[in-house]
Amino acid sequence: MSATIISGKEVASSLREEIKKEVNSISITPGLAVILVGDNPASRSYVKGKEKASKEVGIYSELKELSSDISEKELLDIVDYYNEKPSIHGILVQLPLPGHISEKKVIEHISPEKDVDGFHPINIGRMMTGKDAFLPCTPYGILQMLKYKNIQTEGKHAVVVGRSNIVGKPVGQLLLNENATVTYCHSRTPDLASFTSKADILIAAAGRAEFIDAAYVKEGAVVIDVGMNRKDDGKLCGDVAFEDVKEKASFITPVPGGVGPMTITMLLYNTLQSAKKHAERV
Ligand SMILES: Nc1nc(=O)c2c([nH]1)NC[C@@H]1CN(c3ccc(C(=O)N[C@@H](CCC(=O)O)C(=O)O)cc3)C=[N+]21
């Protein structure tokens, strides 16, 4: 039997409707500042997607485009400017940054109260300890997709392939918070398939095109594809060999149209939450 496809587009549009309604119902306009350094075409295209989605739900978005030779100090000053600007509730510095700028320094410079990416160590610590935090958008979006399809996490064995700070590590943490049993694997894990084939929920976030085929997957598993790879023909593909795996899985997410639209949606959601908290303070 072929797997049910979890359409990120569908889940995203349902959540965006709710976000839009709530944006219209509050007394202030949520504001998001997006800082883009350099002219990487992929980064630019993601940033455009974020701007368009913000407008659609009534969030004000301000794009700051900076030359790739900007100094670290200048960038930190711009972050400061937005940290202090009352009409801005969320700040996103698009990664990756040019090599001469420390990403760590820049992320740590963003006010944790405006860190709608959920990348600041304060928010990561809050997430780890189960406190109120901005949750990182991709892992949070994955949780929403599971919820939307009523997929249980409690007592399930989740296997995460990938250990990045923005996807692999936090998605495991969030699944653990949801009472899953979590195993982390990565590029140095020997006999990877021996782990992934035990997964009830498999999260593929390693950044290798279509390498998870049916041999890596247990019959009836839920397979979430976080990969965002460009093929030689320019087409986007995930870490999962979709056609092969969909015959074995119970649920599967496509690329494109899967996790990607959810990432943007949770950014909008976090920006709305930040604006609401700001409104309570003033
Ligand atoms: N500070 C920061 N925060 C981020 O959240 C962040 C970042 N830096 N740097 C780059 C990555 C990448 N990312 C994507 C979000 C949505 C899609 C997305 O919606 N993709 C569409 C397809 C887009 C296309 O066709 O090119 C889809 O999967 O259907 C993709 C990629 C956010 N990132």
Q: Indicate the mean pLDDT.
A: 97
- How many domains? The number is 2
Provide the CATH top-level class of the largest domain.
Alpha Beta
Bound molecules: 5,10-Methenyltetrahydrofolate
Number of helices: 10
Straight-line N-to-C gap:
55 Å
Give the helix proportion (percent range): 40-55%
Which stretches of 5+ consecutive residues score pLDDT under 50? none
**What is the alpha-carbon Rg in Å?**
19 Å
- Broad structural category: alpha/beta
The tally of strands reads 11
Please identify which CATH superfamily of the largest domain we are dealing with: NAD(P)-binding Rossmann-like Domain
Strand order of the largest sheet: 1-11-8-7-5-6
What's the main sheet like? 6 strands, parallel
Structural write-up:
- It is a single chain.
- This protein has 10 helices and 11 strands.
- The strands form 3 sheets. Strands 1-11-8-7-5-6 form a 6-stranded parallel beta sheet.
- It is globular.
- The model has no long low-confidence stretch (mean pLDDT 97).
- The structure holds 5,10-Methenyltetrahydrofolate (GUE).
- 5,10-Methenyltetrahydrofolate binds next to helix 2, strand 4 and helix 10.
Layout: helices, strands, pairs:
Layout lengths: L3 E2 L2 H18 L5 E7 L3 H17 L2 E7 L5 H13 L5 E4 L9 H7 L11 H8 L8 H12 L8 E5 L6 H10 L3 E5 L6 H5 L4 E4 L17 E4 L3 E2 L5 E2 L4 H4 L5 E2 L6 H23 L1
Parallel strand pairs: 1-11, 2-3, 2-4, 5-6, 5-7, 7-8, 8-11
Antiparallel strand pairs: 9-10
Helix pairs in contact: 1-10, 2-10, 6-7, 6-10
